[in-house]
Hints:
The complex is a heterodimer. Chain A is mainly beta. Chain A has one helix and 33 strands. By secondary structure, chain B is α+β, with helices and mostly antiparallel strands. Chain B is built from 15 helices and 32 strands. In chain B, strands 1-2-3-4 form a four-stranded antiparallel β-sheet, with no helix packed on it. Chain B has a four-stranded antiparallel β-sheet with strand order 5-6-7-8, with no helix packed on it. A four-stranded antiparallel β-sheet of chain B has the order 9-10-11-12, with no helix packed on it. In chain B, helix 11 (546-555) packs across helix 14 (645-657). Chain B is globular, with a radius of gyration of 27 Å. Chain B starts with a helix and ends in a 7-residue tail after the last helix. Classes of the chains: A mainly beta, B alpha+beta. Chain A binds chain B through residues 176-177, 204, 206, 243-249, 321-326, 335, 337, 339, 382, 417-419, 421, 426-436, 438-443, and chain B through 221, 223-224, 246, 268-274, 276-277, 279-282, 285, 303, 306-309, 358, 361-364, 367, 441-442, 462, 464, 467-469, 502, 505-507, 510-513, 595.
Amino acid sequence: MISRARETGYQWFLLVLLIAGLGAGCSKDSYTGKIVAVQIPNGKGHSLESASLIAIDPDDPDLAAEQLSEEFVAAASPSLSHDGRYLFFQGKKLDTEPWQIWMLDLHRKSYSRITDLPEHCTDPVPLPDETVIFSRESRVNGTIVSDLWRCGTDGCCLTRITHQPALNGEATILSEGRILYLSSQQVPEAQDPVLMVMRPDGTKSEIYTPGCCGWNPVTGGSESADGYIYFISSGGRLSRVLHRRPLHTFENLSEEINGLFSAVTPLPDGGCLVSYTPSTGDPFALYTFSPVRGDTPELLYRGNGNVTDPLWVMALEERPRKLPSAVNSENPTGLLMSQNINHSMLPVHPGIIGDSVAKSIRISYLEGKQAILQTEEDGSFYLKLDADQPFRIETLNDSGETVRGPSDWIYLRPNERRACTGCHANPELAPENTQPMAVKKDPLEVYAKKENVNKDEEGT
Amino acid sequence: MMIKMRPLLVFGSVSLLLAAGIISGSRWARVHVNHMTAVDDHPVACWRCHIYTQRDNFIADLMNETYVSPFNMAISLDGNTIYVVGQESNELIVVDAVTDNIIKKIRVGERPHSVVLGNGGAFAYISNQWADNIIKIDLQSYQIVDTLSGGSGPAGMVISPDGDHLYCVNSYSSDISIFDLHTLQEIRRLKAGNNPVSAAMAPDGSEVYVSSRRSVPVPHMTSPVTEMTVTSTSNQRVSDRKMWKDAYIMENVRITPSGDLVLVTLIRPKNLIPAVQIERGWMMTHGIGIIERENGGRMVQLLLDEPNAYYPDPFGLAISPDGKKAYVSHGGGDKVTAIDLDQIRQLLKESSDEQIATYANHLGLSSRYVVGRIPTGANPKGMVLSPDGSKLYVAERLSDHIAVIDTETLETLKTIGLEGPRRITVARHGRQVLNNASGTFQNQYACYTCHPDSHEDGLVYNMAGTDMGRNLANVQTLRDIGNIPPYKWNGKNQSIYKQDGMRFSTILTRTEAFTHDELDALVAYIITGIKNPPNLRFNPHGELTAAQERGKEVFYRTHDNYGNEIPEENRCYTCHPPPYFTNLQMTDVGTLAESDDPMLFDVPQLNNVYESAPYLHDGKAATLEEIWTRFNDHDEHGVANDMLKDELNDLVEYLKSLRDAKYYMEEAEVYQASISNKIKSNEEDTDHPDY
């Protein structure tokens, strides 16, 4: 009797083992090497409201694409975690609801909702520390803008990380750990988009590349293994810059190619996967392209409508760096220093009558508040400002005329310390090794909430 | 029944006790590890700290190896033989460049630095930096045939074209010895820059250029200026001292075959500006210096870095026989950069002086003259070219290999093993971590950059830990610091783990913190692997000079010159007792500056203090003497204002004689005994006042 019970026990144990093994096998990845893309049905143009996510087998492109977003009325902007397991995208299950951020476990084929916010949330990019950055719509002075936010993949710890009044989106993460994103200033007037780079906590945001020759970036950038950043610039041009020197290495790869590009993703072999159409009016399809040969792209997959935003599903050999954050929300201010405001690439303001040497700066906030501060003899300044408040800077001469500026919108994150060599100085110039006079004193405090403070009158 | 239950009860009790012990023990261990590492997720594995950091015992012998660590090299005239200095193994290794075989390993002096070939390649001269001599080796018999003695810390060398004279740079005594190679006697000593290391002879033999690593003394909080000494060989006198502004660590100097350009590797530190970021070359940039000998000696600095990519710690320099290409090894980046010198010539020709003045900080310019970056093994150092220029040999110091690079394709053909240990020990890994810049954002600098030779670079940094412009910090040495916590001038870091841990990554390296394995290895290396060089300059044999003896008396004095008893807390030896000459306590010696937050300072060690200028926490004392002549008005840093100048001089001489802690163990015991006796005597003497 005892031995029969034991035998039964063993049998159950083996059965459980078998089921567990099968279960583990079922959760194995079956998407590595596949392509995920966005398909917009015929007749819908480029509107994402009917878009869906599809998976294509590049080894058998004639095979029908697998639908990955059947539960959604619309899904777009896919991005992949560094381990190739999780697909992040914007989706909506109802036509009436705003876009939200979702995550698809490609192994288990299960969805998790990450955001549940009243505004449109789009363009997710996962970070290696299990957080995700995405774009969230808002308004500034009635104008639609979008800011980058960051939260955990469980939706917790939601933090806004960009604060300039711009359309910010299409973020990607570089291998060094910084975030590349597309930004187009909207206030006070709309400007062409540029690619910006910043740390994942929103600090040290600066221009990465404005494009070249009148062609500005219109998509985010994707980093290749050999150190290029690929993107599409205006006019449907396939473009790239060298990450080592992005401001001066712009290449238009489609100069000799007819047709238009709408998306690009670099491949491990040095080639690219592109969304391309050889002629306007024809739908975009997926092609492969070799930057080395520069030939006309080769067709890989044509879908039912426009196919764009391709991704090659794979785990990265090395995950992006996790950059530490100096942001401390308990400190509501940031510090800003400039070595010499007269060190600048910008032209002197036309119509200036007085001296072109600036001796002070004017800080202007979104709400219209301003402050004027004298700089030191060496042209330096050192300020303590409200964090997360965008401002612009103009340099002024003795007569109060604007010498240069206003600058683009700048903001500091809580506890951020930031320094510049000048005011819109050549970004490729490292600083002079001198201690600015301004830092030998305490910083001048400039707060957005004080009305029209003139620090000169306060004896600074 | 109770009797039957007894074994069970005993077993149960013992088990419970054991479990309780293990649980509380492991809890204690977790608390202990958290405290020592300042993180809460470091593995609780006792051996990672307590075994890896063993020194001078059989465990250390088991854990560690002696590596070759190839440093500088020379190549025979026919290119068939390479002579490699094994810096750690104290050897000269003779390598057949055709077969890749090691022909011979010759034991040389301690810490050899450079090798040059003389007498048509019949002899080799090796400078032994820690033995203060140069040995001459017969390359037929591989025997040491002579020893030359000159200055302290012999390093780079050149031989005059006629073979009559050897110029040797003395890195510790900061001078140049000129030897008559017929008599092998030093015939002249010339003052050079601070910590000179390399020499190059003009092709016509008319001049010798000597590069230095450290800045000459400059006013506090001004940018470093490093001297390149030019010596005329005709009269063997210094003919010029070229001052390189904003630059230092000029490791190697070379001259093109035509003599038109002098090239030198250099680093441009940004120590004066608040260290609030790394982006855009904010902490360190790296490049070369150029002297246009045919253009009035115009001096130019050009960067090898790029806006988003840095190539730190340039060291080796080789110039092709046709003078068109130069190669620079980057010890911190594991790369060799290939440079088109014709492009540089063109750039200089078309540039005005005003334009050239901006080039030294221009990160975008290198794309004009850099033609390739070749990855290498760990920590590439010295390089030599084959006579036809087709092959570049690179000493991979922390891989124990020589890389052979095809200069046409700029690809590595092969590596030649130097028969070093195959095993990479924990400490060796730590040394690789210390020397490699991958632990900083965009590889901009390595630990080694501010701690060359694991020492310090003589600069004061504006670390901007909180506010900008405050709390300036004088870089401290890493030599033999394992037994002297806490760390940082403000003593906030109780262990080296914490010093190099999470906060370090947030405010200094600004990238992902070291992994636990990397940090353990780094700590193991710092604690076990970094030794003080011998103080051959001021105390070669342990016998103090008369002035040093008098200075020692001043150091240990208990009464001033007026007979007043010096309060115990203000006596030199109280804060600076042997063997490390630090009592490991925090103190205030009246040196707080206006730019400092209120704080006490960790008492620094004084071993080998002679080579750690400037002094005090913010480097404001340029010399030891200035500690008391300029910054001790109220006798807060020891009673010194009663001293005659001679007495102060003697004290300084004594301090300069201080060397490695191992020489003061006995003295420490005597000192401890005297303290114990004193305490005991105080306890027994009820009338003795309490301090």
